[in-house]
Write a sequence for this structure.
C-alpha cells in the first residue's frame, strides 16, 4: 500500500512530505492507521544531526491510532484496537528488563537506533529503496507498520492526540518529575524550559503534590500555559532568573531542578539553584558530543545529586497505562498542553512553531 509520510534524507533537512510504499506487516507486526502524532524536539535533533539518527527515515516518535491489519503470529493485539505507540517496549528478558529498568531495555535500544524492525529489514520504501523507521515507530505517516510490542492498548476515553503525547513528551516529563526527581508533597520544584517535556514535568510535579512549582522559559507566552498546567510561578529566563528562584527559597535553592531544554551551559548554571541535599534532573538532551562541567567539590560538600532521566524512567508500557488513567481521572490536563493542530502537509509550519518556543505541543491530526 501507499502512505503519505514525512521523510528526512540528510542532516540539515529539509523534511519532505511524500508518498511512500509500505509493505505488509510480517511476523509479530501490525499496521496502524495513525490518528494523531506529536512534534517532539527530539525529532528536530534528528534533523540537525544532534542525535545522529540513521537516514533516510520517516520521522516521528509520538503517535497513536487504530490497528487495521495484523501480520502472522501477532498474539495480543487485534484489528480495531486503539493503541499508543511506545518507542522503548520491554523485551522482558534482558539485564535491564530483569531489574525493573525496562525503559533501558538493551534489546529495544539497539533496535530503535538501527532504524530497522526486528528481522533487520524495513517495511518502508521509495522506488524500491528502503527508508528507515525512526525510533522503530515513524509516526509522521498516515499508516505505519510497527512491532506488536510497540503498541499499547488505550481506553476509549483517551483521544488519539492525548495518547500520542503520552507516547513521549508526557511520559518523559512526568517520569523525570516523579521517578527521577522523586518529588514529594511540599517540595519546591524548578522546571527550566516549558516546552512539551517541561510542561509535562510541571504537571507531574503538581500530581506529586509539590507546593511550589516554578517554570522558567525564554518565551513570555509560556507564563499562561505553565500556570494553567500547574506552575505556581513563572520566571523569565534572563540573567536574574537563578537569583529570582533563590529569593523564593530564602537563598537555599529548590528541592528539585529539572532541566528540560538540553543546553549544557544551563545545566551547569542551574545547579546553583539546587538546595544542598537536593536533586538536579537532566532530561533535555544536548548534542551527543557536548560536555557538561560541574565543580565536584560543590557536589560533594553540598551533597547535590545530578541524574539523567530517559523516556518514562520506568516500564514505559505500564507508564502509558498509568498516564491514560491519570488523564481520565482529570489529574493530568494533557489536552490543555496541545496548542496547535496541523495536517501532515504542514509539518514544516509545525516544526517552525515549536522552534519559536511559544507553543505547548503541536500535533498532526489525520483524517
Ligand atoms: N530524556 C528523554 O528521554 C527525552 C525525551 C523527549 C525529549 N527530550 C528532550 O527534551 C528537550 C525538550 O524537548 P521538548 O519537546 O519539550 O522541546 P520544546 O521545543 O517543546 O521546548 C523547549 C522549550 O525550551 C525553551 N527554551 C529554549 N532555550 C531556552 C533558554 N535558554 N532558557 C529558557 N528556556 C529556553 C523554549 O522556549 C521552549 O519552551 C529536548 O532536548 C528533547 O530532545 C528528552
Ligand atoms: Zn520525544
Ligand atoms: Zn529488555
Amino acid at each position: 500500500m501507499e502512505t503519505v509520510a514525512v521523510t528526512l534524507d540528510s542532516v540539515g533537512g529539509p523534511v519532505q512530505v511524500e508518498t511512500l510504499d509500505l509493505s505488509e506487516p510480517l511476523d509479530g507486526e501490525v499496521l496502524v492507521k495513525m490518528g494523531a502524532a506529536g512534534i517532539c524536539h527530539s525529532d528536530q535533533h534528528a534533523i540537525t544531526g544532534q542525535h545522529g539518527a540513521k537516514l533516510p527515515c520517516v520521522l516521528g516518535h509520538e503517535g497513536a491510532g487504530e490497528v487495521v491489519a495484523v501480520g502472522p503470529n501477532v498474539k495480543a493485539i487485534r484489528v480495531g484496537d486503539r493503541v499508543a505507540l511506545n518507542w522503548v517496549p520491554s523485551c522482558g528478558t534482558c539485564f535491564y528488563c530483569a531489574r525493573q529498568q525496562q525503559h533501558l531495555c538493551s534489546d529495544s535500544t539497539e533496535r530503535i537506533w538501527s532504524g530497522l524492525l526486528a528481522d533487520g529489514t524495513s517495511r518502508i520504501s521509495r522506488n524500491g529503496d528502503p527508508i528507515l523507521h525512526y525510533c522503530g515507530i515513524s509516526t509522521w505517516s498516515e499508516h505505519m507498520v510497527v512491532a506488536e510490542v510497540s503498541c499499547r492498548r488505550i481506553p476509549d476515553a483517551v483521544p488519539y492526540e492525548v495518547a500520542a503525547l503520552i507516547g513521549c513528551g508526557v511520559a518523559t516529563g512526568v517520569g523525570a518529575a516523579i521517578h527521577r526527581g522523586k518529588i514529594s508533597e511540599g517540595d519546591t520544584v524548578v522546571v527550566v524550559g516549558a516546552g512539551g517535556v517541561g510542561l509535562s514535568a510541571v504537571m507531574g510535579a503538581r500530581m506529586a503534590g509539590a507546593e511550589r512549582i516554578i517554570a522558567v522559559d525564554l518565551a513570555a507566552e509560556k507564563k499562561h500555559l505553565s500556570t494553567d498546567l500547574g506552575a505556581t510561578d513563572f520566571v523569565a529566563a534572563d540573567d536574574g532568573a537563578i537569583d529570582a528562584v533563590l529569593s523564593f527559597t530564602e537563598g537555599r535553592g529548590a528541592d528539585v531542578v529539572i532541566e528540560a531544554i538540553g543546553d549544557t551551559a544551563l545545566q551547569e548554571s542551574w545547579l546553583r539553584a539546587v538546595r544542598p541535599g537536593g536533586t538536579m534532573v537532566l532530561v533535555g538532551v544536548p548534542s551527543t558530543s557536548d560536555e557538561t562541567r560541574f565543580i565536584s567539590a560543590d557536589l560533594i560538600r553540598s551533597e547535590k545529586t545530578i541524574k539523567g532521566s530517559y523516556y518514562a524512567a520506568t516500564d514505559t508500557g505500564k507508564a502509558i497505562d498509568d498516564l491514560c488513567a491519570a488523564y481520565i481521572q482529570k489529574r493530568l490536563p494533557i489536552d490543555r498542553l496541545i496548542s496547535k493542530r496541523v495536517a501532515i502537509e504542514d509539518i514544516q509550519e509545525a516544526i517552525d512553531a515549536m522552534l519559536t518556543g511559544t507553543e505547548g505541543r503541536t500535533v498532526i491530526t489525520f483524517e
Summary: The pocket of zinc ion (ligand 3) is lined by residues 90-91, 94, 96-97, 105-107 (CB under 6 Å). The chain has a mean pLDDT of 97.
